[in-house]
């Protein structure tokens, strides 16, 4: 809305919980320091816009003048029929939030993500783009192999934190189940203070964004095997509720599942499940108690449901 600014810190430098509560239920799709940014997907590949989500154009600007600057932000979407799609594209988001950069030192941070652990199946990468802040000197990405530690193939390099390249792979990069993606970022902290992960320009970040898809084909019917044809989540029932409510979810194949309850301020209330589940239809009950077994107050609560490839949020109202 016009005139609404979602600052993450107040005038005293303290984080604003309400802003982070709002961000907790967003699913990142795209971001870039460039004024114009396009996704170019191969034929037969497209993103799926879930009907439970809207689009939040969260733009950031630096105005160094003494005058108010006016502008517009556009998002142009090209829609295609499901019959034209073979694979659904997913957003790749890998990173490291445990950043501690000592003062007056150059620090190299490495993190390797194995395909088997993160995705559970081979993936095909279409696009990569790094994201860091002003202390970053370089951001490298390597292909690794669990069976051959000597394999370290450079597949991405950014030497300008402010304008990292958006690398489009044609042909796409195919990663096997025994391979991995290693991120290596070099930071030069020339200040006299420790720099850690954070959302301000004086903090630091280490993220790798991109586009990928799996070998799963859109529209494959598995109902004849007695299994759900696609991933789905039901609304909490009953809703409003007192004292308990149930969520049902369906998995077309085995997957890691995490369902966590948060309050309206974004504070974690309770983790209901964080485990691997086989394909099938499952349900889980929340008895309106927190991790300590204490009944929570009446109010609005959010259920964050995560799997390896999906992220959903459901809302429920507890009455007392």
From TrEMBL:
Keywords: Disulfide bond. Pfam families: FlgD_ig (PF13860). GO terms for molecular function: oxidoreductase activity, acting on paired donors, with incorporation or reduction of molecular oxygen, reduced ascorbate as one donor, and incorporation of one atom of oxygen. Residues 246-306 form the FlgD/Vpr Ig-like domain. SUPFAM superfamilies: PHM/PNGase F. Coiled coil: none annotated. This is FlgD/Vpr Ig-like domain-containing protein.
């Amino acid at each position: 809305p016009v005139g609404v600014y979602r600052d993450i810190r107040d005038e005293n430098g303290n984080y604003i919980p309400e802003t982070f509560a709002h961000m907790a239920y967003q699913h990142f799709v795209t971001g870039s320091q460039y004024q114009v940014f396009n996704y170019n997907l191969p034929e037969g590949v497209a993103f799926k816009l879930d009907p439970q989500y809207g689009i939040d154009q969260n733009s950031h600007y630096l105005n160094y003048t003494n005058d108010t600057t006016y502008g517009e932000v556009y998002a142009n979407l090209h829609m295609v029929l499901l019959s034209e799609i073979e694979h659904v594209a997913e957003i790749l988001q890998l990173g490291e939030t445990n950043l501690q950069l000592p003062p007056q030192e150059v620090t190299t941070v490495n993190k390797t993500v194995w395909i088997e652990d993160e995705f559970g199946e081979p993936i095909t990468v279409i696009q990569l783009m790094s994201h860091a802040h002003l202390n970053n000197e370089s951001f490298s990405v390597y292909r690794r192999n669990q069976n051959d530690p000597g394999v370290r193939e450079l597949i991405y390099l950014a030497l300008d934190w402010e304008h990292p390249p958006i690398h489009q792979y044609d042909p796409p990069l195919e990663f096997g189940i025994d391979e991995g993606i290693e991120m290596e970022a070099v930071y030069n902290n020339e200040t006299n203070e420790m720099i850690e992960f954070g959302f301000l320009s004086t903090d630091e970040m280490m993220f790798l964004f991109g586009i990928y898809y799996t070998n799963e084909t859109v529209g494959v019917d598995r109902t004849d095997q007695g299994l759900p044809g696609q991933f789905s989540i039901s609304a909490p029932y009953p809703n409003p509720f007192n004292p308990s409510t149930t969520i049902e979810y369906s998995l077309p194949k085995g997957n890691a599942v995490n369902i966590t309850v948060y309050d309206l301020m974004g504070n974690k209330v309770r983790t209901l499940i964080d485990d691997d589940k086989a394909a099938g239809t499952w349900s889980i009950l929340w008895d309106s108690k927190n991790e300590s077994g204490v009944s929570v107050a009446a109010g609005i609560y959010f259920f964050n449901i995560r799997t390896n490839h999906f992220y959903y949020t459901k809302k429920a109202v507890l009455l007392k």
